[in-house]
Amino acid sequence: MPGSVDKNKTYLSELQKMVSEQQDVIPVLSTHNPQKIVKSPRTNDEMVQKRWALLGHPTPPISLYNEQDKSLIETYGKNIEYGIGTVKIPLGIAGPLRVNGIHAKGDFSIPLATTEAALVASYHRGACLITKAGGANSALLNESVGRSPGFAFNSILEAGTFIAWATEQYPYFIELAGSKTRHGKLRDMKIHMEGNHVYVYLEYTTGDASGQNMVTIATNAIYEYIMSSCPVPIKYGFLEANFSGDKKASAMSFLSVRGKKVTTEVNLSRELIKSVLHTTPEKMLNYWSMSALGGVMSGTIGVQGHYANGLAAFYIATGQDAACVAESAVGVTRFEINPQGGLYASVTMPNIMVGSVGGGTGLSSQKECLNILGLSGDGKARALAEVVGAVCLAGELSIIGALCADHFANAHQKLARG
Fold this sequence. Notes:
Elements: H1 5-29, H2 34-37, H3 45-54, H4 67-72, E1 91-101, E2 105-113, H5 119-132, E3 136-147, E4 150-152, H6 156-178, E5 185-194, E6 197-205, H7 212-229, E7 236-238, H8 251-255, E8 259-268, H9 270-277, H10 281-298, E9 302-303, H11 307-318, H12 325-328, E10 331-337, E11 343-352, H13 364-373, H14 381-404, H15 408-417
Parallel strand pairs: 1-3, 9-10
Antiparallel strand pairs: 1-2, 3-6, 3-8, 4-6, 4-7, 5-6, 8-11, 10-11
Helix pairs in contact: 5-14, 6-7, 10-14, 11-14
């Protein structure tokens, strides 16, 4: 609650008003039967029509459910429950962005889906800048996705006994996980003990899929085996004990990996920075130094400007799990003056959660966006991650250039308001 007496009174008055308004609304809401609306989660045309009728629409609004949606609606069954249509998001293209990677090599056109004006223009400028400089070097360093079952015991002695047993069972855990997935492989197990609680962190490689569902199903087989076969009594256990870093920024993932860890770099000449960004390497370094300290003082995990902007637009366009921006938008952007008097810039991102197969990547629009990149299907996920690193580097260079040249507000004023 607010701190001052006057503000507290205002807050309480507004709260009482809100409660009163909710009481007036409740009888109106009760005229709809929630059980009828949510009777079946299936997504097909018949169920869509019924849901809209129950919502008071004899026919679905064409902006949310048109003939094309109708023809594709059953293909959405593995991606949505209680479906009523689709939401259209503007799609732009940035680039070409040249990437000199281990897995990604060439010039890439970058699809970005967003409702935020100035975003695509900024990433386009950064991408073209990198390409004019000869491209960004990008390297996949590591990859794994984890799940962390948790177990409670009566004492630390029993918890320790469990740890010894679980360590011996690791080869069998590998077999159990392998029986549930053709593409995922259990590659490591790390055990953390806190009092009489034990967190078992299981790390997997997931092939070309982002892999969250894959590792959940594989881990469940191990979890059920532990619950039924552990030689010491388990008070209670959970399939996921919030130790894996799923859908959140975490210090552990920042220092290791969740998804794919990528580092990307570029060298920019003084002349190129002046002609494209209208500033100097020294001013960009000054900005980076001040913003890095600002990030440290405010408690950010890592130091970066706005990875989330490019990640969200890219993830939505290409059918990734958009909620994974929470962990993916973590990393380190670094600038320094290079020996030629230009600017060396790099980003290191330890939690890029992308796949070229599975999840939303098979939906028609999202698959076409991956096709624009040439990165749809088997064998493309590692290249996709290296491209993501270059996209985020492009965004960092462009926004910092705009701030250094005092163009940041003007760009939003011009593009967002015409």
